[in-house]
Predict the 3D structure of the following.
Amino acid sequence: MKPLIKFENVGKIYRTGDVEYEALHDVNLTIDEGELVVILGPSGAGKSTLLNMLGGLDSATSGTITFGEKEVTALNDYELGKFRAVEVGIIFQFYNLIPTLTALENVALMEELGIDIMDPMEALRLVDLERVANNFPPQMSGGQQQRVSIARAVAKRPRLLLCDEPTGALDTKTGKEVMELLQKQSRKEHITVVMVTHNNAFADLADKVILVKNGTVTDIVINENPKTADEIAW
Ligand SMILES: Nc1ncnc2c1ncn2[C@@H]1O[C@H](COP(=O)(O)OP(=O)(O)OP(=O)(O)O)[C@@H](O)[C@H]1O
Ligand SMILES: [Mg+2]
C-alpha cells in the first residue's frame, strides 16, 4: 500500500501564557492511502491533537509530517490553509452546520469559499438525503445532520477525511448508520478516513488502530479482517 501520511518524531506543546503542556511526544506513524484508521484512547490522551495535526489544522512543535509528496511541516500559513481546503474533509461530533442555511446550501457553501466541489445535490444523494435538501438543520434529526456534514466533507473529494467522535452525539442505531456510511465512502471512493472515538467496538471496523495514552502512541494494530458496521456489537 502507498503511504499517504507519515509522522516522524512529531511533538506538540501547547503554550498558555507561561505554562507549557506537552500534548504529544515523539509520535511515529504511517497512514496508507484508502485506509480506515481509528484512534483510540482515554480523555485528554491527545487524540484530537493528533487528528488536527494529521490534517494540518494545527502545527507540530517538533518533528516532520509528510502528506503524499508534500512536507506539511515546511508549509507557511497560507500554503497550509490551501492544503487543508483542498485535501482535507472534516466531520465533528456536533455537525457544525450553519443553522440558517438549508442542507443543500450547507454543502454548496464550499463553492462560495472557492473550493472545487461536486454537484451539491449529488453529494446529498450519496448520503441518501435528497428528500431533506431544503430543510434547515433544526428540521433534521441528529443522524441526518451528521450525514449532511459527511456530504459537505466528501463533496470536495478530499484525499483525507477526518472525523472527531462522529457518532458521539447519536444513538446506537443512527451511529451505526453513520459508521456504515463512512466505511462505505472509504472503500468506494478510496478516501483515507481517520476517526477518533471513545467506542472500542469501532476498532473492529478499522484497517489500523492507533492507541494513544498520555500524549504518546502506545501501540499501532493492523487489522487484517476488518468487520462491517452491522457486524459489530455496541
Ligand atoms: N489549545 C490548547 N491549549 C492548551 N492545552 C490544550 C489545548 N488543546 C488541548 N490541550 C491539552 O492537551 C491534552 C490533549 O488534548 P486532546 O484534546 O488532544 O485530548 P483528547 O484525547 O482528544 O481528549 P477527549 O477524548 O476528551 O476529546 C489535554 O490535556 C488538553 O488539556
Ligand atoms: Mg478530543
About this structure: Residues 99 and 137 are 5 Å apart (CA to CA).
